[in-house]
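Work Package 4 report. The design task specified in the project plan requires that, given a folded chain encoded as structure tokens, an amino acid be chosen for each position. We show below one input record used in the internal validation round.
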């Protein structure tokens, strides 16, 4: 909708002529100014134009909001799925490590027991040897005294 601007070209031309401007120049200036004002007014937005743009902008904003929400929901679902997959993988890794730890603990206990038995055998032999020597020393001392 074009807004109407009241501009009296005749009165404007007469004022210019009273100020000393020649009549043809005053008439030409009055027509040129009227044309500029009319063209300028056509380019101005009206309240209806602004309301139309506002409604279109709101509709576009609503579309973007809905699309963004859908994208966020999709990304959130994908992230949850990835996290569940990682959690499952980590649980499997932890279980495997627990099994390896239990197995290693069992091997270490077995090796420790074997080493302890060997140490016990060596100590028994050494103690037996010491007893034999002690008995020998006692026998020699008995004979000497």
């Amino acid at each position: 909708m074009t807004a109407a601007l009241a501009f009296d070209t005749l009165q404007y031309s007469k004022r210019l002529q009273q100020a000393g401007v020649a009549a043809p120049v005053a008439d030409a200036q009055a027509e040129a100014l009227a044309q500029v004002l009319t063209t300028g007014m056509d380019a101005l937005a009206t309240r209806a134009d602004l309301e139309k743009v506002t409604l279109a902008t709101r509709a576009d904003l609503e579309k973007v909001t809905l699309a963004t929400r859908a994208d966020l929901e999709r990304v959130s679902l994908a992230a949850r799925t990835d996290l569940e997959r990682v959690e499952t993988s980590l649980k499997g890794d932890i279980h495997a490590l627990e099994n390896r730890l239990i197995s290693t603990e069992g091997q270490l206990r077995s090796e420790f027991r074997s080493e302890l038995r060997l140490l016990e055998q060596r100590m028994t032999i050494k103690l037996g040897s010491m007893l034999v020597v002690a008995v020998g020393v006692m026998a020699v001392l008995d004979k000497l005294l």
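Residues 65 and 71 are 10 Å apart (CA to CA). Validation will be extended to a larger panel in the next phase.
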